[in-house]
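can u do me a favor
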């Protein structure tokens, strides 16, 4: 992995606002990363200063070893989980590019 990709992934994660969540796959797609696992690796190795708690697995659940702290942090931002799962239809973040594409598709 090159430094440019690493920084792109970090920038996308940093852009997820409070009160919203994204999946590892969402971040990979926006940043052009080859795999959601790469996003997880970057967060594990270099994500201490990022809003890591806003990134979830594809089914809306946190990683089991982070579950309690992650759901607590999300709850503090107004993101409520149903048990251990966040409703992605309600709380999923759309990147500025996705917002533009959605608006363009309305007309």
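np, heres the sequence
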């Amino acid at each position: 992995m090159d430094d440019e990709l690493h920084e792109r992934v970090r920038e996308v994660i940093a852009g997820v606002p409070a009160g919203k969540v994204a999946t590892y796959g969402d971040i990979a797609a926006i940043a052009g990363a080859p795999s959601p696992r790469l996003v997880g690796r970057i967060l594990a190795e270099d994500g201490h200063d990022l809003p890591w708690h806003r990134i979830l697995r594809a089914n809306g659940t946190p990683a089991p070893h982070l579950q309690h702290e992650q759901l607590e942090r999300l709850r503090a931002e107004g993101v409520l989980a149903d048990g251990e799962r966040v409703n992605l239809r309600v709380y999923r973040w759309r990147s500025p590019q996705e917002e533009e594409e959605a608006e363009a598709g309305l007309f």
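The beta strands are 22-23, 55-56, 81-82, 85-86. hope that helps!!
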